[in-house]
Amino acid sequence: MEPDQEIRPERVLNYVKAAQKALNEFPDEVKTDFLTELDLFRQYEPTNDTCRMKGKLRDVYEIKESDESGTYRVMFTAIVEEQVWVLHAFQKKSPSGIATPQKDLDLIYKRLQEVKTADAARRK
Fold first, then answer.
1. 91-99: which pairs have CB atoms within 8 A and are 24 or more residues apart?
2. The CATH number of the domain covering residues in 12-123
3. Could you report the per-residue pLDDT of 5-40, keeping only the tens digit for each?
């Protein structure tokens, strides 16, 4: 360890149940890639494949992976330093460009608010 390197608590990886179920249904290679990316983020080592969303979802990060069966996305957040929450996982099926469908954005926002509310209650 570098002398001036900050020691941070290891983050815990948590899942919204529906997101974990969806991720488990992804093709094995895609699932492995996502789990590797999430583990690196958990260890404070995000890669170039991890990008921050914009607007009211700026606290959410996204990872995209593709294989011959399609494009997959996982959205997650780091609510507090020791927690990473996977909020949503899905296969992008929309033929209308690369934009995330509004129904998925609304669901991600709803789950983000639920996780933040639960975290605030836990801290009281």
1. 91/26
2. 3.30.2310.20
3. 667 777 899 999 999 999 999 999 999 999 999 999
